[in-house]
Amino acid sequence: MAVSIHHLQQWKQNGRPIVALTAWDFLIAQVLDRAGIDVILVGDSLAMVALGYDTTLPLTLDEILHHAKAVSRGVSQALVVCDLPFLSYQESPQQALQVAGRILKESGVKAVKIEGGYPAMAETVQFLTQRGIPVMGHVGLTPQSVHQFGGFRQQGRDETSAESILAEAIALEAAGAFAVVLEHIPDTLAASITQKLNIPTIGIGAGEGCDGQILVTADVLGLSEWRPKFAKPYTDLRQAITDAVQAFSQAVRSHDSISSGTD
Ligand code: KIV
User: What separation in Å is there between the alpha carbon of 242 and the centre of ligand 1?
Assistant: First the structure.
């Protein structure tokens, strides 16, 4: 069954948790899709996990488009969502429409995600959704604002900041967002936002009280050299790959190669 934004809404009503992960290429996307992941995000975190940048800020539209096309080719069931990269949408709703439209047309993803809420981004979300482009919101620790936050720090710790994150999430829902990512905020705040919204919340480092969970796949697989404390690895692929390539290396060096030219 191909997942649509309407399934996510139904699942919130039924209490069925939404499972989301990021992907940056064809192979990873194909594995996630066949494993039954509901939502695959071509997150701008690929700037860090696939391209080696320190933050998500340098990522360009052409770079994310290239990856979004590869991910789309690997997916047949999951809902694929693509981030709009830093400074490709903040200037005006019209700029966001051009960029989001180009991503949907050229890559085949079904929706876009933008960071930030009230007031500027809520206006942009409304502009896009009224023109038929599904938008996922993202509040809390929005990594494109890392320098404004002074690092990748938890947000919403004091009352003012918590109230403003709640207001942003409510504004995004009113603007037509179909879901909202809550990143690195206190569990109690995430749970209270989840209860107040009719659209699903997808948490990352935001506790169990969200309607779904997302993580960066490189962290789940234990591939990243560094990962946030909240991102639990479910395997150690970094070690598994090291073991495999060292075994291959040793086989080649000892003339014990298994790659035979004879059929
Ligand atoms: O870019 C990304 O991977 C994200 C998720 C972590 C939510 O935005």
Answer: 26
